[in-house]
Design brief:
homodimer, SH3 type barrels, Fumarylacetoacetate hydrolase, domain 2, 2 domains, five-stranded antiparallel beta sheet, 10 helices, 25 strands, Fumarylacetoacetase_N_sf (chains A, B), fumarylacetoacetase activity (chains A, B), fumarylacetoacetase (chains A, B)
Chain lengths: ~425, ~425
Amino acid sequence: MTDTAAPTDFTNDPSATSWVESADGHPDFPVQNLPFGIFETSDGRVRGGVAIGESILCLPASVDLLGDEAADLARLADARDLNALFSKGARAVSALRQAVFRLLTDGGRKGEAQGHLHQADACELHVPFTVGDYTDFYSGIHHAVNIGSLFRPDNPLLPNYKHVPIGYHGRSSSIRVSGTEVKRPTGQKKPAEDGGDPGFGPSERLDYELEMAIWIGEGNALGEPIPIAEAGRHIAGISILNDWSARDIQAWEYQPLGPFLAKNFNSTVSPWVVTMDALAPFRVAQPERPEGDPLPLPYLLDRSDQETGALDVTMEVYLSTKAMRDAGDEPHRLSRGPMTAMYWTAAQLVAHHSVNGCNLRAGDLLGTGTLTSGEDHGKGSLMELSNGGKTPITLPNGETRTFLEDGDEIIMTAFAERDGFARIGLGECRATIAG
Amino acid sequence: MTDTAAPTDFTNDPSATSWVESADGHPDFPVQNLPFGIFETSDGRVRGGVAIGESILCLPASVDLLGDEAADLARLADARDLNALFSKGARAVSALRQAVFRLLTDGGRKGEAQGHLHQADACELHVPFTVGDYTDFYSGIHHAVNIGSLFRPDNPLLPNYKHVPIGYHGRSSSIRVSGTEVKRPTGQKKPAEDGGDPGFGPSERLDYELEMAIWIGEGNALGEPIPIAEAGRHIAGISILNDWSARDIQAWEYQPLGPFLAKNFNSTVSPWVVTMDALAPFRVAQPERPEGDPLPLPYLLDRSDQETGALDVTMEVYLSTKAMRDAGDEPHRLSRGPMTAMYWTAAQLVAHHSVNGCNLRAGDLLGTGTLTSGEDHGKGSLMELSNGGKTPITLPNGETRTFLEDGDEIIMTAFAERDGFARIGLGECRATIAG
């Protein structure tokens, strides 16, 4: 890998250690990460915090320990979502995160701060933002080709794909945090043969989709597009997203206006917002487009973005069936692949979304679309792994799956690793199909 | 027209009169209407009110005049949106509206109440709800056929259309109230010939779409569908909706996931929520489906809904160009048609939307889709009136239009009329293209 051109700061220093003992060497949340989230303690209080090792630092409680500028920002975390805090913009959130870093790395301040730590496993985590609008993109080109081949064998990738960052609006109301059970949706299903009557009942082709969530921080006014060169500072951070999909409902309803009930019954996000600052060491060049692909239009093209706008993040999906859990088996890995499967950078998605004047707001969620790698072990959905349900996959215990069964749990993880830097984890995005 | 089977109540009594002089005979807001909205006075205060003639009754100020149950509800209108009030459910809102009706029809109470009236034209009106999710349906079958013929000449109405109430998610953030200027969107446009490069620039095929807005009152929990027989009580009321559309952007981006930037730059709603109670005298049977059309599936079929679930509301669209305004000309009527152009009832849209467990919330907006009648003078968009831009329409002053020019103002109105009842108006939904 070539060296990144993205600037790093002192919070990326791999030699930094925290007086929070569980933080050093923590696979997800060392002091170099410090992701933001919303947590609830057993007394029912809900507010913003920062993950550090196995603990959460309460931000509102720490106001007096963070210095003047950061204190004003930490007060905004005394809320049920992070919207007010992140609406202040990337520079403000950087300042707050840096103040938290200083507090948690200064052993002399352990006494005054440790009372504001909560054991993470004793807290309930919430969706970090109140999502005004959820947009789902389709930036995983290998996924687009794979799915396109199943729906339109003669025409997998439509002529617009390499010009337009394809996206559509999803449902805000049904976004739930990791750990929330998913109820299998009922609906109309594609007729067995063309011209026949649709079926009706619980989906028999329930699937997951491995995506990353890109959170909007500072928004833009209606009618004022975000230029590509400024798009980065509107991105608050990322989480993991499972965009559950009912393939039989989707196949019947999606023309001509796109997916609707096949998707809007539930979407699951991981609870921690990992900032672009924490990910700075893992910024890499956007993979070169294959020979013959068109150049992005000028409003999508920025040299710095092309050189540092992709993220070297690895994503994994695991399945744990009820039988596996009953037998004490470990979850089985279904796939592993890189976030660089995105045909467009996050900044390109933001610039495209607003080029028509559409206003983004703090807390808006942009899904990347399913991120399937070009390799067999990197397929980000069962639809792809089972070849449209035609070829069941076999699990280590002999069970088979084409689509999800009741009791199945899907666990997604993601992390960034690089020699000379601390590993940064995204945590988990997990949910079980009820039944 | 056959007699309606929908129950009416004392607020529909056509002989009722109000001590608010401008109300009696008012074309939109007689005392039989009493729609709810959010208004702002010149001192910057924003709260909920009820339109009566040329005035607005301030609900929070009237708390002591409305009786105990209604008082508690009126307090919920001391807010920047009607979400909290309408989340209490249809029966609660009915009780409040009836209390307002009693107050405004009892001449003896003029003295204590008239101080809480504001001149409507001195107030600024707002979008009545904070819209959590905006869903746009496609229930106007004549529109679907007309548009389908332009995009897919060989296949205008897809096989799912008469089975599935087709819908998709729209953008919440860019919904604006009547009177807000619309900025022409920029974006990628369909290549002149297949396989060519897309164009880029301001839309040259900017259009309006005549729709009605169906507002959700009481919502449902995630995973708990709303049965068709109960769907009616989840409907708070209706307004007029203009779903602005950039046809050149839409034609290029919409496959395979539906419209996105072609629609999400702006949607305009009228400010007053006309309740289903006010519209009770205008409930009519859903038009019979043509011979050979499939019967709706059981989850969409309810006898009472079929008998009284459609609304006898007339909608009109007017155009006023800059040249017309400069010359003092009246706006020119582009179309007039009935809301019964809906292939599905509002209750069917609600039942379908939630059949998969998707949760609706108070303030959610359901667009009907463009409502074009089966007659030439009832086409609800310029795309239809100009035959896809191929046949310009000529205005009385000699100007021609295929799509909207800068400075054009689109004015939509809607109303219900029936012998023996007061006319109920929806007010106006108007906006001008900037430039």
